[in-house]
Amino acid sequence: MPRICLNVLVGIPASGKTTYYQQIESTPNRTFNVVNVCYDTYIEIDRKFEMFCSKPGSYKISRQTLVPSVEAIISTIMEGKVATTLDSLLCSWQHTFGKPLEISTSAVPSDDYLFLIDDNNYYRSMRWDWARMAKKLSLGFLETYFDILLPVALERNAAREHPVSEDVITRMWTRLEKPCGKLFRWEQSSIFIQEQLDISGILSSIENCFANPEKASDPPPTTSLPMEQSAVHKLDILLRKAISKKTASIKDSMDRHQLRSYVELLQERKNFILHEFRHVEQNVPEEMFDNLVEELF
């Protein structure tokens, strides 16, 4: 029976998502097929970010077309109808999105498919669409987060042939909700990518994803008990310390104006994280705050 893993990529533009796909796709003797669902190819989220922000709900509508199209293709593969129904669905995909779906076959015949969901996925609700599908269809589920400093991403982006607006990248970075399995149980299968790609470790995580598909469960709670004011105060102090630490690590590479702008972004990020803590699945013990702030910031 075919095995399918949904690998949801999380990261701002120029954080390394394309390189990640290329490294996996070019792995010698790869034993699984790779389906690259690159949102910017079919929806162009990076280039149309301003439009999506100015028209509430427009991005969600675009996603509502793509997600069920992927689900239909996955269902067809799982039902063993590759030779008949799949070709029709792929033709429909090209008609709907204007470009063919990228499928890279394995070096040896295989029924395993890795679906790379290549999007910024900066809101947790975006990733939940795919986690919910994984639970519904008993698929493997894995999140890959590209942990990059904002100045590094901006520098990489500036060197691109078609750079994304710096303001778009900055706003995405500020609002990005990092995967956190300690707060959200369905995000426990996550890997973090920093400077170097550990391709053997990545392939091991993918194989584990194939071997351990998700199981149907109740949807995550959307509310939690209010956080005690003393806990909010402690969290605020820890976030301020995190800002000081990040500022100290980057100040030598920025002029005064750049540093001031960066600190303002960190302050906005701090407020965003405080808001995020109020909407977790479960109450968070205060002894976990230090580690969680490090992970989320």
TrEMBL record:
Keywords: ATP-binding, Nucleotide-binding. GO terms for molecular function: ATP binding; kinase activity; tRNA binding. Pfam families: KTI12. It comes from the Eukaryota. This is L-seryl-tRNA(Sec) kinase.
